Amino acid sequence: MAKPAEHKDFIHYAQVISNYDTSGLVKTSEEGLPFLERDLSWLSFNYRVLQEAKDPSVPLFERIKFLAIYSSNLDEFFRVRMANHRNLLRVGKKTKKELHINSKQIVKDIQRIVNKQQEEFSRIFEEEIIPELRNHNIYLLRRLDLNEEQKHFVENYFKDHMLPFVQPVLLVKNKIRPFLNNAALYLTVLLAEKHLPNAPHKYAIVKIPSDHLPRFIKLPAATPEQHDLIMLDDIVRHSVSWMFPGYEILDTFSIKLTRDAELYIDDEFSGDLVQKIKESLARRQVGPASRFVYDREMPDELLDFIKEAFDLEKYDILQEGRYHNNFDFFKFPSFEIDHLKNPALPPLPYHPLEDADDFYQAMRERDHLIHVPYHNYRSVVRFFEVAARDPKVTHIKIIQYRVARQSRIMQALMDAVKAGKQVSVFIEVKARFDEEANLEWGERLEKAGVNVHYSFPGVKVHSKLALVRRIENRRARMYTYLSTGNFHEDTAKVYSDFGLFTADERLVNEVARVFSFLETVKVPEQGFEHLMVGQFNLRTGLESLIDFEIAQAKGGKRAEIILKLNSLQDKSMITKLYEASQAGVKIQLIVRGICSLVPGVPGMSDNIHAISIVDRFLEHARVFIFYHAGEEKIYMSSADWMSRNLSYRVETAFPIYAPHIRSQIKDFMAIQLNDNVKARIIDAASSNRYYKDGSDLAIRSQMETYYYIKRQSEQDGQIEAEGLPGPM
């Protein structure tokens, strides 16, 4: 096993972002190679999400949902990534010099880009979404828009439901400064004393209790066909004068503070890591500021007072519109108006496993691939539930990274223990924002008798593997499920992932070695010939595959690489891809999020074409295809090509051997590469231009994939009904 990192996460991060080119968005390495700074590339991805919100071809309620996704993404970005940059700003000059970083420039670029995006967000909401809602008889009202009946309703609602939670506080310089809760909404109030009109203005804050009450409140409407709404923020605005008798309310402006979400676990190589994480979770909500957002209409007088009162620095503050926490748009009422949503795409059955009388015989006969959310998740759930009931099953093993709050899979594991089986679960308690849920599941599983193993220090376990051992004809046989996504019944409805069911001994034996390593922390003696596993052979295996294509190209032979990833950031791998491009290897990239590689640079990356697809489902699968002299090497993986994945995680890339599945995967990749509706071009300018191929036929890859699988599902159903053998 590679030696774990022995330095702080933010120091490692600083080394990754060194040599930043302050003249533009693209930095240049010491070798003169172009790289797009990872966080600026991520902001470009999030803008692609915002593009969906302003696309008039997207149904209205889905556009509102994309506003929520954009906001939720940005909130996490500031709690994690921007918090790291802020830490780097605070280190001493000597440290900055040693690390060769320009953190100040990065922060400036992030603020400039985010401010520009927020202005567009406000424009989309005010000038496109609001008018379009009105076109459908949905009115989002402000307090001055209310009629007398609605005013009476709002006033009663405030007194009956909100009064205990608003917490009005009159601010007094250097004396009264209340604590601002992470991501809580507040209204700042500009006041004047009624009997002293020439006295200096007073300031106050009031909490908007969106943590206790719905953000959108339905109002009495003039007709049954009309739908009137008001945001909780504006109910507080309407009622604020009652909270400050003796004062005239001059104006109100919303604010929100986001706090650093990093756990900063000291010396995680000693002591009880699980206990340290529990203690750190309690501190997460009181961490230092990473972003303070305010209504851009706020006067300088009030902003200056707030900055001083809450000890905010200039790099902490960003402008937004009238409303914050716009991820609450996830809960925007739909009023059962279905035509303003995406048309239903019900998950399709995978008949060969769902309808199989003998699940294990079906796996022995051939490998099986599911592609969620196009396929439903029943086959995965059934894999565990069948194993829990089967008297021939002796062992079940699984890696838990993220899991649903209500999980049939976890319940099956606990049922299996009751049935006398040995169940082993490796829980990664450092899965960010799922730490608490994973700890809770760990405790529940341990109480049920499951053998639970927890995180390694310095390394995250991110593989998505499960293994079942069964006694058949007096000999042990193993079955495995390998996936690009988590064992999470909820995200399987919206995340696009692949899952492979196989009894191929070449794979199951090596999956067993991964579990042996996780449980014993002993390096397997036999190593890995088929799987590529992080901390062992993942990085070197990928490099060897690229080197083979380079050698082929230099020899004048056909050489091609297709990579589908969430993120491409690792400097070494990008350098290797540049080398391949220069040698003549044709490289096609489908990268959903971060792409630090810069395609299309003459003489450097002109053989690299990169697109990103953002649509109704989150693209989450990783697929690697190498032409390999006509004997294509096809892998699926849990790993993105980021330094953290390739050097600081236990990841798995698994080969696809079954011819019928190899054919399907190539079809899926061809569909995505031909997308001319939702694909954006990745380039040095981060332009996010939509890819157009000149074709008159619109190809939207997610819809094409759904109907490809629907045709296959219907064919499989017919084969199962007639008892015919499936493809081999």
TrEMBL record:
Residues 149-332 form the Polyphosphate kinase middle domain. GO terms for biological process: polyphosphate biosynthetic process. GO terms for cellular component: polyphosphate kinase complex. An intermediate of this reaction is the autophosphorylated ppk in which a phosphate is covalently linked to a histidine residue through a N-P bond. Residues 35-140 form the Polyphosphate kinase N-terminal domain. Mg(2+) binds at residues 402, 432. GO terms for molecular function: ATP binding; metal ion binding; polyphosphate kinase activity. Its EC number is 2.7.4.1. It catalyses: [phosphate](n) + ATP = [phosphate](n+1) + ADP. Its cofactor is Mg(2+). The active site is at 462 (phosphohistidine intermediate). ATP binds at residues 73, 495, 592, 620. Keywords: ATP-binding, Kinase, Magnesium, Metal-binding, Nucleotide-binding, Phosphoprotein, Transferase. Catalyzes the reversible transfer of the terminal phosphate of ATP to form a long-chain polyphosphate (polyP). This is Polyphosphate kinase. It comes from Phaeodactylibacter luteus. The gene is ppk1.
